[in-house]
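ok trying again, last paste got cut off:
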Amino acid sequence: MSTEHNGENGSGHADGPIKPVSIAGELAASVADPGRVIILFYAEWCEPCRTIMPIVEQFATDDPTPVFSVDVESYPVLGETADVERLPTIVRYADGAEQDRIEGVCSAEELATLVI
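nice, full thing came through this time. structure:
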């Protein structure tokens, strides 16, 4: 995650590969999408989140799976809703249900296995 990140998405641009989620309705709609979705829960102050952001951004660019992000510092209720206890947390949902999650920093290979 770059220090220029302004909360719009992981790349700091509204048109980047990671779509920001800021309200509960958006989170619910994102999760309910048919097929798979990945949601990254992070915070600006979180150094491990900054470490993993380029990996997630590259994944979002290369893989057709939709990727969303939630800044739990700005939107703590969304993190609570998803039972996020550690940052970063990446959750894979399929057809509206949580399928798997990774807590903490992971490699690109580990992230890729999340969507298999």
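cool. The mean pLDDT is 86. Strands lie at 19-20, 36-42, 67-71, 89-94, 97-103.
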